[in-house]
């Protein structure tokens, strides 16, 4: 008998337009799929998202142009010069996402919602509010990356509403968290994995993401791996036009680990440069993340103390920089 092997995708595929559907049955089916992804690996592919391919392509194109700039020009935007310490350029090796191993090979540019120095939030010293640092000589860079990040924010809000519904909570349950969110759009450049790499020296060390949800667009290089509880590291190859979405540590805290904030890493074995665009949606700094209704009982008491978004993020950054 002839058997045909069908390569199942490494992660479930969820359609954003179905999550937002006005048809209750369509939406319920999408919510059920989202729920099983949250419980299983905490990772999924997102399609039907409505982000124009042209905007994605243009964002990648600007990322390439930015990283190709001379080091002095990039260093002029060093994150150390930014008020928030996390807007601008990060040299390779600045972050060690898997503490105790060698620093990451990746190089990055970070931007967030732009708050001018005289904005009341900035004057009040609110966590992570400040102006961006933009490169010179790249007309359209700021507008493109900002438009891309706006699209990510739209999708992150849709996902948070979907996650609330997977827990039997009202769709607007996370609105307080979503208000004026701390969010970071990163552009990442990975050099090819060095032939003479030392043990543990990889593009991006094994880590979980810190916040609410992450939306990642990868180029065609591959290299992203996700930890499967049974099979170990599995590849999460790019599916053209789809995002990889994963849950961060706050969702694990909220759900008392019913939902998984999963380990992932990047080893760029493509032999060429790899570019990716992760967006991190981390919520309002003052919001208190606490065990959600229905996620703890006598048999499974709450494992985590309530914590503000700000304190949680400060703790995570201190551990990896
Ligand atoms: O570049 C990637 O594919 C993943 C990056 C990542 O996991 C991160 O920046 O947190
Ligand atoms: Fe990550």
UniProtKB/TrEMBL annotation:
Pathway this chain belongs to: Alkene biosynthesis; ethylene biosynthesis via 2-oxoglutarate
Zinc listed as a keyword: no
Cited Gene3D superfamilies: B-lactam Antibiotic, Isopenicillin N Synthase, Chain
Keywords: Ethylene biosynthesis, Iron, Metal-binding, Oxidoreductase
E.C. number(s) listed in UniProt: 1.13.12.19, 1.14.20.7
Gene Ontology MF terms: 2-oxoglutarate oxygenase/decarboxylase (ethylene-forming) activity; metal ion binding
Domain of life of the native organism: Bacteria
Reaction(s) catalysed by this chain's protein: 2-oxoglutarate + O2 + 2 H(+) = ethene + 3 CO2 + H2O; L-arginine + 2-oxoglutarate + O2 = guanidine + L-glutamate 5-semialdehyde + succinate + CO2
Cofactor(s) listed in the protein's UniProt record: Fe(2+)
Family: Belongs to the iron/ascorbate-dependent oxidoreductase family.
Family matches, as PANTHER family: 2-OXOGLUTARATE (2OG) AND FE(II)-DEPENDENT OXYGENASE SUPERFAMILY PROTEIN-RELATED (PTHR47990)
Name of this protein: 2-oxoglutarate-dependent ethylene/succinate-forming enzyme
